[in-house]
């Protein structure tokens, strides 16, 4: 089950870090850099574990691809993380891959713990006063059966404004962030939010928290932004906590490895600009032929 965004998350996770027990390597994957927004929280709140982050940057963005392709790609990546790197827990740190592929992944790999991320529609319904909610997400997410089933399960008195983020991921993944270009995109594409009674905007892609400051500045303080990254990490923490008694104690400080299918030095440079509070000088980055 994906993390329940309604669960209170204040950063106080359940996992005890003294005499921490380590599970097998924890895998993360995304179409590119977006999943780093969740990985950064995990590294800060769940240290002492070994992490492998696979960035499928050569195929970025997933949001413009067909569902069948995303499913096949997700299965291939999970197979690699599981077989080659020994991952028993894998975080699908991509809204689009979660929407299109997570059901197939769980069916094919029942022995693995697969944790997904989906737009925070439920917490948005608790946050809004006007009952008008904007959802900024990729085209593939907004058109997926999983996402639309989620919307269909909500009370009918809520208005949901679907806002495709076409082109925004590419702007965020540029080697040097160009705030002016991003602001121009926001002016052109967030018009439905500004021209409606919308008071809550769901950030439905893991890339978007990296420009949360620009989005908030554009929409103003009266619009609440919903991001479910913390809910995902809390879900991961609960799973690790459940495994503690069955695992031997370890004094490991943990490790982080990046797998990418673009120039590793370019990927590491882009990652470090986004993860300003997480030093990456000693992180191993491997070119992946996948």
Q: How would you portray this structure in words?
A:
The chain has 290 residues and is of the alpha/beta class. It has 2 domains: 26-118 and 229-287, Rossmann fold, CATH 3.40.50; 121-226, 3-Layer(aba) Sandwich (Rossmann fold), CATH 3.40.50. 40% of the residues lie in helices and 16% in strands. A 6-stranded parallel beta sheet has the order 4-3-1-2-9-10, sandwiched between helices. Strands 6-5-7-8 form a 4-stranded parallel beta sheet. Helix 1 (36-45) links the parallel strand 1 (26-30) and strand 2 (50-55). It starts with 25 loop residues before the first strand and ends with a strand. 43% of the residues are buried.
A few lines on this structure:
By secondary structure, the chain is of the alpha/beta class. The chain has helices spanning 36-45, 67-83, 95-108, 121-127, 139-143, 145-152, 168-172, 179-189, 191-194, 212-219, 229-243, 264-274; strands spanning 26-30, 50-55, 89-92, 113-115, 132-137, 159-164, 200-203, 224-226, 255-260, 284-287.
Question: What helical percentage do the residues reach?
Answer: 25-40%
Label the CATH architecture of the largest domain.
3-Layer(aba) Sandwich
Rg, Å, rounded: 18 Å
**Count of domain modules:** 2
Order of strands in the sheet with the most strands?
A: 4-3-1-2-9-10
Strand content: 15-25%
Task: Count the E strands.
Answer: 10
CATH topology of the largest domain: Rossmann fold
Total helix count?
Answer: 12
